[in-house]
Amino acid sequence: MELQIAEDVRRFLEKIVGPPLEELGGLLADHVRLFRFKKQVKILEKARKILLDKGINPRKVSLKTLVPILEEGSLEEDESMSDRWASLLATAADPSSTISVQPSFPEILKELSPGEALILDVIFDLVISEAIPRDNWAFHGADGNSIRKAIHLSDEEFEIATDNLFRLKLCSPPSMTIKGISPPGRRFQLQMKEVICLTDFGFAFVSACRSHLIRG
Length: 216
Fold this sequence. Notes:
By secondary structure, the protein is mainly alpha-helical. It folds into 2 domains: about 1-100, no CATH class; about 110-210, Orthogonal Bundle (Arc Repressor Mutant, subunit A), CATH 1.10.10. The protein has helices at about 1-15, 20-55, 65-75, 80-95, 105-110, 115-130, 145-150, 155-165, 200-210, and strands at about 140-145, 170, 175, 185-190, 195-200. Strands 1-5-2 form a 3-stranded antiparallel sheet. A two-stranded antiparallel sheet has the order 3-4. Helix 2 packs across helix 4 (about 80-95), helix 3 (about 65-75) packs antiparallel against helix 4 and helix 6 (about 115-130) crosses helix 8 (about 155-165). The chain starts with a helix and ends in a 6-residue tail after the last helix. The relative contact order is 0.12.
């Protein structure tokens, strides 16, 4: 009985959809493949133009880095995030770059929303503009309320975004030293979001994704 019902439903669906299900599935698959191919071509073209405009002759990029960038980047619909994928590829292909594109960077980039990427930009720009020494990154960060207002995030969106940035080890709450604790100089991380700090890993990641982007 259940098999008969399933077959009846399949036939009904074929009638209201039009082409056979197998053909419909093929059409959808072709559409997705075409969409992803166009995105891959766009990323490649952007990266090519970035290097061409700077007169840089690209080097060979490891397939371990190239394939994830093209595969994951082909699913990106946001234009600003697509620019980051192109910049990441350009960094990897730039023989003069001192930034090491880690194999984990494409995996991390695909897990970021545009809002989360903007939070990283704000903190990264603060570190650069104020020339904050690396030793101070653990406790000198950006004001959480200022970030939320600057990029127009709701309280809930900000909480979710910062949780994800903490999870990915790109950012962290500030840390502090406590007198009388042995060994001296040992730092303790606070559980707060009033100040968002950039980690060493986060700095390297943003550098790779923005090294070829024009900063405002």
